[in-house]
Amino acid sequence: MAKIHMILQGKGGVGKSLIATLLAQYKINAGQQPLCIDTDPVNATFHGFERLNVKRLHILENEEINPRNFDTLVELIAPATDDVIIDNGASSFVPLSHYLNSNQVPSLLQELGHELVIHTVITGSQALTDTLNGFAQLATQFTQETTFIVWLNPYWGAIESEGKSFEQMKAYTANKSRVSAIIHIPTLKKETYGRDLADMLQARLTFAEALANPALTIMTRQRLTIIKNQLFAQMDSAAVL
Q1: What CATH number is given to the structural domain containing 157?
Q2: 162 Rama class: left (phi>0) / alpha (psi -120 to 50) / beta
Q3: 20 falls within a domain
Q4: Considering the domain boundaries, does residue 233 fall inside one?
Q5: Which residues, other chains included, contact 187 with Cβ-Cβ below 8 Å and sequence gap of 6+?
Q6: How many domains does the chain have?
Q7: 195 within domain boundaries
Q8: Closest CA to 91 of 68, 47, 59, 123
Q9: What are the distances in angstroms from CA 20 to CA 119, 122, 145, 184, 217?
């Protein structure tokens, strides 16, 4: 049975592609060979990581999304024996979510022996409300065959509202039973850890590539190792992965 990991969130620029790359690297680090797919019609960031061998699925026709092109996605997923990781853009969030539910894809995947795991992102500051609403919308729309993992990304600001953490907010408490794991992306100092990670992502490098690059300083590689270990340790604890 393959697990189909799909990253969905209606807000752009919150770290969906980062999560896709982390999942792919985690699977590869564990000796797996995940099938990686990028469906983002605008910013195919995931596809840019050559080491991850990401397939790009084109869903635009005459500058509009043709939902029927998602049929190709199902055809790619169906015969999979290894896990599948799918990055989806904000602009195709609504069409893909509607396609998956209206065509009863979660139950179809279950019949095929697969499990759908939806990863969504919550971030802080002005994007907090939008990402909370996106999560609540997904949890309401998708049937019980679907498992959820929530990633908390503090890049845009602390994830809190009126003194409440995410775990105390209504969006979570109302849907707690649907969430199998919460992964906290660490708050990174911009001058050191944050810059090192940003430079690595900008160059479309994986942790393995960066850590093997002698052109990077010893301390840059040390900080990247710490980030990787912190994230992978949390992913180890998420049994659904």
Answers
A1: 3.40.50.300
A2: left
A3: yes
A4: no
A5: 154
A6: 1
A7: no
A8: 59
A9: 9, 15, 21, 15, 26
